[in-house]
Amino acid sequence: MERHKIKELATIFDSLESEYCNFSQHFDGISVEENELPGIPAELAKVIKGVLGAQSSKWIYRKVPALDNQCAADMIKTEAGYKAVKLILMRMPL
Which pLDDT score is estimated for 1? Predict the structure, then answer.
């Protein structure tokens, strides 16, 4: 069952989706090995690696307070969670 906070984040993302598209394009040149971020879609893996660098493979399994103390690898299994992860990545300092 999805938590209220995650649904709120997904709603916020919906209003910023075009900004995410522009944001994610900055990471098109990032190379992600197939087994580097297992289970993470290629487009999202590039953004995660671009934002977090060497910490990306640990971050996807770490409980993130901004994601209601859930990990990104679990969150992306639902549409609302996927959107919440994208929003959180946009908010992280580069």
Answer: 43
